[in-house]
Each structure stands twice: as C-alpha cells, then as structure tokens.
Amino acid sequence: MLFVEWKSEFSVGIERFDDDHRHLFSLLNQLHESMAARDGNLVLSLVLRELVWYAQNHFRAEEVLMKLYGYPELASHRAEHDRFTEQVVQFVDHFRSDETGSQLKC
C-alpha cells in the first residue's frame, strides 16, 4: 500500500517537473516502506540521502525557472520548498542521532 499516491491534479504541466515530483512520491513511499519493514539503517540512509539530494537540486532548478518566467507566487512556493527541506533535514538529524538505539534501527 502506498503512503502517498501521485494524482493527475498534482501535475504542473511541465514534464520534467512532473517526473521529478513523481520521483519524490516514490522516495517518500520507499522511505515509508523501509521503515514499516524495518529494513535497517543502511536502506533508510540511502533513501534519506537521495531525498536530501532531491530537495536541494530539484527545488533549486524549479525556482530558477519560476524566477525566469516571472511566476507570481514564487515567494510562497519557495517557502513551501523551505518547509519541506527543513522537515527532511530534521528527520535526517533525528535518524542520525538515534542510530544507536531508536525505533528506526533494526
């Protein structure tokens, strides 16, 4: 069962970004499945590393194009990116600090 499911209404109409967003959903589902299956810290670490990379690179590329084309809601969209990135960073920090005995460790 999927934790989050891509729906067509999430599409922004730009294939590259829609593909990136689908990949984000896939990463979130992998993370959820790994935690539910108690796959171990190595699997979780790999998924988290890719999620951090995604947040840093995808969001930067998206914001550059939004600015280039004068997207009127760039500031609020950037704030959403910042919130998501902060949540990911907090989760990674929590994961790293709990590696020696948390519920995330198998």
Describe the structure.
- The protein has one domain: Up-down Bundle (Four Helix Bundle (Hemerythrin (Met), subunit A)).
- The chain is 71% helix and 0% strand.
- It contains three helices and no strands.
- The two termini are 21 Å apart.
- The model is unreliable at 100-106 (pLDDT under 50).
Using only CA atoms, what is the Rg? Answer: 15 Å
Instruction: Write down the secondary-structure element order.
Output: HHH
Into which percent range does the helicity of residues fall?
Answer: over 70%
Q: Number of DSSP helices? A: 3
Main beta-sheet annotation? none
CATH-level-4 superfamily name: Hemerythrin-like
CATH fold-level assignment: Four Helix Bundle (Hemerythrin (Met), subunit A)
Pick out the low-confidence regions.
100-106
Overall 3D form: globular
N-to-C CA distance: 21 Å
Short description:
By secondary structure, the protein is mostly helical. The chain is built from three helices and no strands. It has helices at residues 15-37, 41-68, 74-97.
Itemize the secondary structure elements and their pairings.
Layout: H1 15-37, H2 41-68, H3 74-97
Helix pairs in contact: 1-2, 2-3
Give descriptors for this structure.
mainly alpha; globular; Four Helix Bundle (Hemerythrin (Met), subunit A); 106 residues
